[in-house]
Write a structure and sequence with these properties.
The complex is a heterodimer of chains A (398) and B (386). Chain A has 398 residues and is of the alpha+beta class. Chain A has three domains: 87 residues, Butyryl-Coa Dehydrogenase, subunit A, domain 1; 110 residues, Butyryl-CoA Dehydrogenase, subunit A, domain 2, CATH 2.40.110; 140 residues, Butyryl-CoA Dehydrogenase, subunit A, domain 3 (Up-down Bundle), CATH 1.20.140. Chain A contains eleven helices and ten strands. In chain A, the strands form three sheets. Chain A has a four-stranded mixed sheet. Chain A has a four-stranded antiparallel sheet with strand order 2-3-7-6, with no helix packed on it. In chain A, a hairpin with an 8-residue loop joins strand 6 and strand 7. In chain A, helix 4 runs antiparallel to helix 5. In chain B, the strands form three sheets. In chain B, strands 1-4-5-8 form a four-stranded mixed sheet, covered by helices on one side. Chain B has 386 residues and is an alpha+beta fold. In chain B, helix 7 runs parallel beside helix 9. Classes of the chains: A alpha+beta (398), B alpha+beta (386).
């Protein structure tokens, strides 16, 4: 067992930290972390931030150097997330492009596709979204009905996508569509397309979430066009491309864990500060017990992650155990956020500018319900762990 | 980043697993329940031959000079097979304290014999109707010449009958504080009256031991006189790190039992593991197993490396694994259905062991309180053990 980091990794951290101090948006480190409300201004702000990251060489650290990356090791990628969380850096608007689509193109795109897309992903010039879920294909993604029909050198696409994060800001979409029907194996016959969002056949409608934000969208595809050159991988073999794409997002849970760590520290501070009847909340025996339990579980989740990371480092790619990390961190985030609202008493219902402590707690509480659904529900994660880690038999119908 | 047991430690686990498998794993415990301790005696020699009992004893006293992390596979494996005995108290309490506070004479007398598996220790702390607090220690050791004269009763002493020596917690001067508590190494003799106490976990022999004017040489005092309390607390760090591993071993076995059973047991024409109510329950057990294991590895690592967060880490491992073992052992019975409720299956043995450990040397509530204290959430004021 060894938790130390190498000299090279330490230098990586130091370099990034110094760079952030100089390049974060004005006033950010001093506490001015509000993002613009206006849709256009918001988009511009985040694209500018990504451009700044690109210019500093910090937009896609894990990418090969020739594509604008740093060839970062897995540990350096972890450090990258730690540092970004530490300063609560603005979100990466092209997260999907950087962490999923880009690496997939680098690995299995044609030369033409690499030439056309990669540079613009890393600069933030072209923001990507993913066209996966549909109204009748959620956890059962292989049930998608959006169709792509070949017509000469192009494909005509019809259907509807939903929960498309960043869809309203996106220029391009990594889209899954059905190109043939296989009655036995539904996931055969799906093809992955690189779709241009700026065309007449594509319409996005934002969905208002339960926390009031509009982060994802419905996408209507009506005779949308993709060309043969926009197919990634082989026709009818898009499922494989998607699985490979998901494996590229190898450190996303790390970022969520470091966020949880930060939130836990903030929680401790709040329970010391927040008084009921003159006594700090942390001295309330119930609160103290619960906080000790949260500490234990949060540390346990982090240490599980490090143990799985050790396996990933040895084997070269993450195993199904990453579902354990995803399940634990999302459920714990939800429970902790609920607890933080609860211990504020009836004032816990106050929101936004009237929030009793900081509206971030109410916002986190509401947003946390998305975490146990997005990226595979907790139930799907439990199936994955049961079947792929423990070797239990698959459910009927799958 | 390397957060895993190393190859040698995993290999050692393999040897232990194979060795205990040959004895039929829980068969040793089951025979012991019936009053036959031959298997246990054999493993005592056998484990010593494998080097297990020498792991954390320094080389000059016949040990391997290794630390808490090297004990992890050992405690996991004996937890898994529900091996009776006082390995926990001997190796993860008395050994580190003897190494640190023992006189040269004490070390020479005891450490080589522990390393060779010839001597075992147990902990005699609790007294009838009393708790773990220093003000509840009434068993007295009065100084008379070169001796202590010991009077009092200890109970719930783990394997008080089998252990060769007791680490006895005594009061050496009248006070209701920590001050005045001392530790004495008392070899078992016929002068002590031992009464067995029936225990729900029948793989554990608990004893009530009466000391009536028992003379013990002053040379048997461990650490400074009147200042034994803080030494006990230090010992608890080692013990709880190892205990967490022992419980991890138990949980590991229980998850394996449930998983295997759910694959082969068929109802409604299919294996019950296909039903999500069963599958997801086992997955939840698995999640708690992995979390317990991660916490316990880190607990031992932080202890070995004297990390600043070792107290919070050890207490959180202890706290989490305690609850997790009870939950997993309970679910395991439910998943096995009717046969899970029978004596024939091992399910109940794990539940009983889990409950045995629940409040051993402090409750989950107590250890949670210790976490809050170690992390400086609350003042340093004295917290009573619950």
């Amino acid at each position: 067992m060894d938790f130390s980091i190498s000299k090279q990794e330490e230098e990586f951290r130091h370099e990034l930290r110094s760079w952030l101090e100089e390049n974060l948006p004005a006033g950010w480190l001093e506490g001015n972390k509000d993002l613009p409300n206006d849709k256009e201004a918001y988009s511009t702000f985040l694209r500018d931030w990504q451009k700044t990251l690109y210019e500093g060489g910090w937009a896609a650290v894990a990418w090969p150097k020739e594509y604008g990356g740093r060839n970062a090791t897995l540990m350096e990628e972890i450090i990258y997330h730690q540092e970004m969380v530490r300063v609560e850096a603005p979100p990466l608007v092209n997260y999907i492009g950087i962490h999923m689509v880009g690496p997939t193109l680098i690995q299995s795109g044609t030369e033409e596709q690499k030439e056309k897309y990669i540079k613009k992903i890393v600069t933030g010039e072209e923001v990507w979204c993913q066209g996966y879920s549909e109204p009748n294909a959620g956890s059962d993604l292989s049930a998608i009905k959006t169709s792509a029909i070949k017509d000469g050198d192009h494909w005509i696409i019809n259907g509807q996508k939903v929960w498309t994060s960043y869809g309203h800001l996106a220029d391009k979409c990594f889209l899954l569509a059905r190109t043939s029907n296989n009655q036995e194996k539904k996931h055969r016959g799906i093809t992955a397309f690189l779709l241009d969002m700026h065309q007449a056949g594509v319409e996005t409608r934002p969905i208002t979430q339960m926390d009031g934000r509009q982060e994802f969208n419905e996408v209507y595809l009506t005779d949308a066009i993709a060309y043969d050159s926009d197919v990634i991988g082989e026709v009818d073999k898009g499922w494989r491309v998607m699985i490979a794409l998901m494996l590229h997002e190898r450190t996303g849970i790390g970022a969520e864990l470091f966020t949880l760590e930060k939130r836990f520290t903030d929680m401790v501070a709040l329970t010391k500060e927040y008084k009921v009847n003159g006594i700090p909340l942390i001295e309330d025996p119930f609160v103290k017990q619960k906080m000790a339990n949260f500490y234990t579980r949060f540390r346990g989740s982090l240490l599980n992650y490090y143990r799985n990371l050790t396996t990933t480092l040895k084997k070269g790619q993450p195993g199904p155990e990453s579902s354990i990390d995803k399940l634990l961190v999302s459920e714990l985030t939800k429970e902790m956020a609920g607890f933080m609202v609860s211990i504020q008493g009836h004032r816990g219902v106050l929101w936004k500018e009237d929030a009793s402590a900081n509206t971030v707690w109410q916002d986190n509480f509401l947003a946390s319900f998305g975490q146990t659904i997005g990226g595979g529900t907790s139930e799907v994660q439990r199936n994955t762990i049961g079947e792929r880690v423990l070797g239990l038999p698959k459910d009927m119908g799958r | 980043m390397d957060f895993a047991l190393n190859e040698e430690q995993e290999m050692f686990r393999g040897y232990l697993r194979k060795y205990l498998d040959e004895f039929g794993q829980t068969k040793i415990a089951r025979e012991f329940i019936k009053g036959n301790s031959k298997g246990l005696d054999k493993t005592r020699t056998g484990l010593a031959e494998l080097g297990a009992t020498a792991i954390n004893i320094s080389e000059e006293y016949g040990g391997l000079g290794l630390g808490p992390v090297d004990l992890v596979p050992f405690f996991e494996e004996i937890g898994r097979s529900l091996l009776p005995g006082v390995y926990l108290e001997t190796m993860a309490f008395v050994v580190p304290l003897l190494e640190k506070y023992g006189t040269k004479k004490q070390k020479e007398k005891y450490l080589p014999e522990i390393a060779s598996g010839e001597r075992s220790f147990t902990l005699a702390w609790l007294e009838p109707k009393k708790g773990y607090n220093p003000n509840e220690i009434a068993c007295s050791a009065n100084q008379e010449g070169d001796s202590f004269v010991i009077n009092g009763v200890k109970e719930l002493v783990p394997h008080g009958d089998l252990a060769d020596t007791y680490l006895l917690v005594v009061r050496t001067y009248d006070s209701s504080e920590r001050e005045g508590v001392s530790l004495v190494l008392v070899d078992q003799t016929e002068e002590m009256e031992i009464r067995m106490q029936k225990c729900v976990d029948e793989t554990k022999h608990l004893s009530e031991i009466t000391f009536d004017h028992v003379n013990i040489s002053k040379q048997q005092l461990l650490g400074p006189i009147h200042h034994g309390w803080s030494i006990l607390q230090e010992g608890l760090l080692y013990l709880n790190a190892a205990l967490s591993s022992m419980m991890v071993g138990g949980i590991d076995k229980v998850v394996e039992m449930s998983t295997e059973y759910a694959k082969i047991r068929e109802q409604f024409g299919q294996p019950i593991g296909r039903f999500q109510a069963v599958k997801h329950t086992i997955v939840d057990m698995k999640l708690e197993l992995e979390t317990s294991r991660s916490l316990s590895y880190y607990a031992s690592w932080s202890l070995e490396n004297e990390e600043e967060d070792r107290e919070a880490s050890i207490y959180s491992a202890r706290s989490f694994a305690t609850d997790a073992y009870i939950r997993a052992a309970s679910h395991n019975i439910q998943i096995h259905g009717g046969v899970g409720f029978t004596e024939e299956m091992d399910c109940h043995l794990h539940l009983k062991r889990a409950r045995y450990f629940e409040n051993y040397l402090g409750s989950v509530t107590y250890y949670n309180e210790q976490i809050a204290k170690a992390l400086h959430w609350i003042g340093e004021e004295y917290i009573f053990v619950k």
